[in-house]
Each structure stands twice: as structure tokens, then as C-alpha cells.
Design a protein that fits this description.
The complex is a heterodimer of chains A (about 160) and B (about 100).
Chain A: H1 2-37, H2 40-44, H3 48-56, E1 62-63, E2 67-70, E3 74-75, E4 81-87, E5 92-99, E6 106-112, E7 116-124, E8 130-138, E9 141-151
Parallel strand pairs in A: 1-9, 3-9
Antiparallel strand pairs in A: 2-4, 4-7, 5-6, 5-8, 8-9
Chain B: E1 5-12, E2 15-22, E3 45-52, E4 55-62, E5 71-77, E6 84-91, E7 96-102
Antiparallel strand pairs in B: 1-2, 2-5, 3-4, 3-6, 6-7
Classes of the chains: A alpha+beta (about 160), B mainly beta (about 100).
Chain lengths: ~160, ~100
């Protein structure tokens, strides 16, 4: 009888472990959902227009003085190019950052939420001397600004 | 990958400035290993989420075009001193990390 009880306990234990295993399995599935949100088509695009179409839903944009890009004129190391994008436009929904000379130009998109000020900074890689393009989506339209950055050592090779 | 994020959040007037540094190799998948000659598989942060007070302030989607050990700074309004800001990232290989800091 004692044997049997123990056997029951053991079975219960393994059942519980089984449930945990399933839970972990379900947990592992979440990154898949994330990749769905991360737009592969946009990031794999080989041209600026293609990337904008995928990421922002359109490619046509108007140049705007209201967008400011802060980036060095000459980047000694293309692997680390500090870039800041800011604008005083109202109703900014998202900002896309592109490096025109890269094999896949789209570097990042920033979706602004509640209270966010359209002012982001990061560091990007640039394969060669090219324009850094900032595209701001505000009021359902795209506005853009560009700045040329001279790269002395490319950041995409080995 | 614990503690891969460093956050500084500072309140200036009514705007909170958040600066963060993440530790990540950010491989594009286009680079060759100089020793073996094989391609290094892509490994980069694809999504960064910033939340404060239960609200999403910003979601950033990245490619391998962001530099190694990424730096990100952004501003937002509507928070007070002592409020918390959480930064969470996920990479293309299923890795993730998050860190919370108090606004000073």
C-alpha cells in the first residue's frame, strides 16, 4: 500500500512537472510573436524607398527643416556613428533612421508612445560615406531630413 | 544575460531624459569570423520597449545596423521624480532582458 501511495505521489509529481514543461514551451513561443512585430521585410529591404514602404506604409516624403539630425561630418569609425534625431513637429507617431549606403538601409524605427518627445539618440553602423536619413511620420505624412556623413573606416566589414 | 542594461533617468523641468546602454554583440550576420572564415550568424537586439507608469513610452525596432553595445537616449513627459522607467529588449535569437530605474 505504501508503495502504491508513493507511486501516486510520484505520478502527480511528474504530471506537475509536465505542466511546467508545457508552460515553458508556451513561454518560448513569445519571441516568435515578437519577430512578427519586427518587420523583416522593412529591415531586409535593399533600398530606402522599399524600406519606407514596408516600415511606414509609404515612401513619398517631403524634406523638412523641422527635423534636426545630429551626426558627425566625418566619422572615423563607421562601426560607431552617434546619431540624434529631433523635431519640434506635433503629433509625431514614429521615426525611422536609415543609412543610405548600407546594404540594408533601414537601421531603426522608433514608435513613440504616450508622452514621448520626438528626440532620440543612438549609435549606428555605416558601411561607407553616405547620407543618414531621418524620416518622421506625423499626421499621416512622412517628413524627412538627411545629413551626409563621411566614413573613413567602414563598419560593416570584418 | 542579467544586468545587460544600464539606465540613467533624469527629470529636467517637465521632461524626463532617459539614457541607456545595453551590452550586446549586435552581429549583422554579414561578418566573417577571421579565424574560421565562417559567417557569424546574425545576433542583434530587434526590439526595445520603454515603459513607465504602466504606459509604453516608446518601442524601438532595430536591425544589426545599430552599433555593438547599443546606446539609446530619449525624452518623455508626464513622469515625476521617483517614478520608475523600465527598459526591456529582445533579440533575434530569443534572448531578452529588462531593467528598471528610478527617475532622479
Amino acid at each position: 500500500m505504501t508503495m502504491n501511495t508513493k507511486r501516486r505521489v510520484f505520478l502527480k509529481g511528474s504530471l506537475a512537472a509536465g505542466t511546467v514543461g508545457v508552460a515553458v514551451g508556451a513561454g518560448l513561443l513569445t519571441p516568435q510573436a515578437v519577430i512578427a512585430a519586427w518587420d523583416e521585410k522593412a529591415f531586409a529591404a535593399k533600398s530606402v524607398d522599399e524600406a519606407l514602404n514596408a516600415a511606414m506604409g509609404m515612401a513619398s516624403n517631403t524634406a523638412s527643416d523641422a527635423i534636426k539630425i545630429k551626426a558627425p561630418d566625418i566619422a572615423e569609425n563607421g562601426a560607431v556613428v552617434p546619431v540624434s534625431v529631433s523635431t519640434d513637429m506635433a503629433g509625431v507617431e514614429s521615426i525611422a533612421l536609415l543609412a543610405e549606403g548600407n546594404a540594408t538601409p533601414l537601421v531603426a524605427t522608433f514608435e513613440l508612445g504616450e508622452g514621448a518627445v520626438p528626440d532620440v539618440s543612438t549609435r549606428i553602423k555605416m558601411g561607407k560615406t553616405a547620407d543618414v536619413i531621418a524620416v518622421v511620420k506625423a499626421g499621416g505624412k512622412l517628413h524627412s531630413a538627411r545629413k551626409s556623413v563621411k566614413v573613413t573606416i567602414g563598419g560593416c566589414g570584418g | 544575460m542579467a544586468n545587460s542594461i544600464k539606465i540613467r533617468a533624469k527629470l529636467k523641468g517637465d521632461t524626463t531624459q532617459v539614457k541607456c546602454l545595453m551590452t550586446h554583440p549586435m552581429e549583422t550576420g554579414l561578418r566573417k569570423d577571421s579565424k574560421t572564415g565562417k559567417m557569424i550568424p546574425a545576433h542583434f537586439i530587434s526590439e526595445v520597449m520603454a515603459t513607465s507608469g504602466g504606459k509604453t513610452i516608446m518601442t524601438a525596432y532595430w536591425s544589426g545596423g545599430i552599433s555593438k553595445n547599443p546606446y539609446l537616449s530619449f525624452d518623455f513627459k508626464g513622469a515625476a521624480k521617483g517614478d520608475e522607467v523600465t527598459i526591456a529588449w529582445k533579440d533575434n535569437q530569443g534572448g531578452s532582458d529588462s531593467e528598471t530605474a528610478k527617475i532622479s
